[in-house]
Amino acid sequence: FLEAVSLHDVRLLPDSWQAIAQQTNLDYLLMLDVDNLVYSFRTTAGLNASGSAYGGWELPTSELRGHFVGHYLSASAMTWASTHNLTIYENMNAVVAALAECQAKIGTGYLSAFPTSLFDRFEALESVWAPYYTIHKIMAGLLDQYTYAANSLAFEMLLGMTDYFGSRVERVIEKYSIERHWQSLNEETGGMNDVLYRVYQITGDAKHLKLAHLFDKPCFLGLLAVRADSISGFHANTHIPIVIGAQLRYEVVGDKLYKDLSEYFMKIVSSSHTYATGGTSAGEFWSDPSRLGDTLGTENEESCTTYNMLKVARNLFRWTKQMHYADFYERALINGVLTIQRGKEPGVMIYMLPLAPGSSKATSYHGWGTPFSSFWCCYGTAIESFSKLGDSIYFTDEVQDTPQLYVIQYLSSKVLWTAAGLSVDQRVYHMTSTDPVMTVTFNFTQLVLGKTSEAKLSVRVPYWAQSSRCLLNGLELQNLTPGTFFDVSREWKTGDKLSFTFSAMLRLEKIQDERSKYSSLYAIYYGPYLLAGMSDGNYKLGSVNVSTPSRWIKPVRDSNLFSFTQLQQGKLQYLAASSDGALSMISKPQHGSEEAPLATFRLKLLPSLKTIEKFQVKDVTSLLLDREVSLELLNRPGRFVTHFGIEDGVRLTNGKSSGFPSSSSVFKLRSALSGHPGEISFEASGIQGCFLVAQGRDITLECERFNKMAASFGVTAGRASYHPMSFEAYGDNDTYLMFPLSSYSDEKYAVYFEV
Q: Where would I find the Non-reducing end beta-L-arabinofuranosidase-like GH127 middle domain in this sequence (predicted)?
């Protein structure tokens, strides 16, 4: 098997999006108080508890309390390995020490934030909320503390828990039957088999192997073993961890059946149950195969399922080196995982990823969580995901005589390739909408100067690359094939530089639905990035050619975006459009909010005056005075501010062209009627003396007897801006602003389009 390079030997470089996500996650982990985290553990153990319990699923009344603490143990251990941040190291050791006191006080090896009575109910097949799910998280967290941070106390605690639960399972089987034990597994048990197989890998104790196998759910794994695509109706995140555990059984025992069934599982999920993001599930459950068209809603793609499917794909890649597993990993990581956080706000994450047209991450059932009162299951997997972003970039082949390093992700990072005696610095320069080329460079440094030996670097050539080039120290190498690894073997030395360029293309992929009514539903990609279009619910493109998207999808430059303000009753108000096209003045919109793009306009000069392509705020109030312009809404390309005559309303109209729809959408920029510097007024072209006026919240065109202050607007940089990978997709009736789904915050979007 390939082995992943240790997180201790990989460092994300600060210019990468992933490094920003990792830092945001670290900031959140450092916000969490040790006493608050272990509060319910202490009260359950009968110890005095300082601090107070956190909210949400960690409330003292929640039957799942303690699950997040298990995730915290894993996430903090991996964050320590990824960053060597001393504060997180101290905090996680304090949590382990506090939990050890709780376990010692109980005295049986049991450790949880809830009493053993929940397991009494579980074993009696009474209603209870997944106690083994939480126990798995705690056990996995302790194991990760041992694995990544060499905390031997954590491993002793883990063995105590293993003995306790081993005895409980044996008593159930002796008192009732093995069948009764299997029945109890219909409740979610997390990855109990996974963590127990990992324990067995360390101890070699047969009782740990036996207990792990008792959590291999036969009624589910049996379906996969006979290659039945019958996962419809199963709770996705209950069963993906069971497959991960089955994969561990293959690794530790060599039982090929478990390799085969996990390959089959990956095949059916990825080919008939996966959305364009790489995620799966609707309302937490799998639907019928190739029937995703009518599942698009607000409750798609539970984040936990993406986290766990990445584990499945990672294991399969390690075993087989097959490229399609690496491709899946890239897609799900970029479009599924990196979309979970709300920008750089620590502790603000989502549970579900809505995929219905007009959806927003902010308006699903759960919406955005909060740092101290959510703690959903997906908060736990999210903090783990962002703590180990460096664990699947580099893999080594330890079997070969010649050291070999596989690179499957393009992520600015530095890796210690100890087997080859090298440090490798990977730098990634991403494509933009105007420049489709992604450049990846590898710079080599010998760890011991003068000591060289042959080593092989194997770099993934992505399937999405329209063309590829490779230069070694400035000399071009040949025969790069998309969807394969490109191998370069040599005696590497300090100063060697290997450069790749991958040219991305726009492409469309059909939704996984074989019914004719959904045959025209497509997602749009740019390289590995899923593009979502800003939309209040529209998703129809019409008669476009799916095989030549570059003819109707055009790049957008980030320029000439402004917001227009007015001071009303001491409060700064912003000119903004509503979803129905009406214009009004609103309070200052926050960056990333749904309102920010509605209060941002692209200032377009008339075609005959396009001598200035890009201008700044100061130009609007000076250089552009007396020029004719139109105001195009940022998130609705082709929609222009239009007046409908004197003393009538002002609203957006659809120009449906790259020019201007009518003279009613053309205004002359004038010096502000207020006389204030830094302000402007908009005079209707062809109607001298008539100006846009803000009457309170309403916007009208007025020609006389109006307040000159109300016809004057300040100019600022736009409250929203274009993403570097922004495009305009021109349909029959609408034009959509497209950019990667991972960069959306509260804005509404469509992921699938009808063509």
A: 404-502
Q: In the prediction, which pLDDT does 614 show?
A: 83
Residue 337 carries which DSSP code?
A: I
The whole-angstrom separation of Cα 707 and Cα 395 is 69
Question: pLDDT (tens digit, 9 = 90+) per residue, 349-402?
Answer: 999 999 999 999 998 899 999 999 999 999 999 999 999 999 999 999 988 889
pLDDT of 442-484, one tens digit each? 999 999 988 878 999 999 999 999 999 999 999 999 989 999 9
Dihedrals phi, psi of 84, to nearest 5 degrees? 55, 35
Strands (E) in 235-389, as ranges, are: none
Cα–Cα dist 137/157, whole Å: 14
Q: Which has the closest alpha carbon to 264: 216, 300, 213, 228?
A: 228
Single out the residue of 245, 93, 247, 84 nearest to residue 157, CA to CA: 93
CB atoms near residue 623 (< 10 Å): 12
Give the separation between CA 711 and CA 687, rounded to whole angstroms: 15
CB count, 10 Å around CB of 171? 11
- Could you tell me the domains of the chain? 394-504 (2.60.40), 506-555+726-741+746-750 (no CATH), 561-717 (2.80.10.50)
Gap between the Cα atoms of 99 and 151, Å rounded: 13
Question: 448-481 burial, b for 16+ CB within 10 Å, e for fewer?
Answer: eeeebeebbbbbbbbebbeebbbeeeeeeeeebe
pTM value is: 0.95
Residue-wise pLDDT tens digits, 670-687: 999 999 999 999 999 989
